[in-house]
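Now for one record:
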Amino acid sequence: MNQLQQVLVAAKNLALQNKTPTVAMLKSRLNSVPLPILIQGLQKYKSMTVIEIDAIATTQPVPNSEHDENGTTLTLGIQLKFQQLEKQYEELKKDYQNLDLRLKELEQRK
């Protein structure tokens, strides 16, 4: 396994632990990997699709597997996508509330 692959595996393992991979977190786990390789690997990881991330071999099992209402284990890709969608939903919700508040203020000024 080359150094770039080590960075990708470490980044995926962090994501499996519900942690956002950062250069500092990767550096603490991969002391022997040069900083430019860490940055390159993290950029590559962040640009990967969910399917590509799923294809990265991990060195540890998925902690705290989640299950849907039927008891089926959700894949990492689905979990990551769901987390992204939840974050986007919360951001949109805040934006809507701010716009609604501004509209009410404008209507009161008339």
Summary: The chain has two domains: 1-59, 73-110.
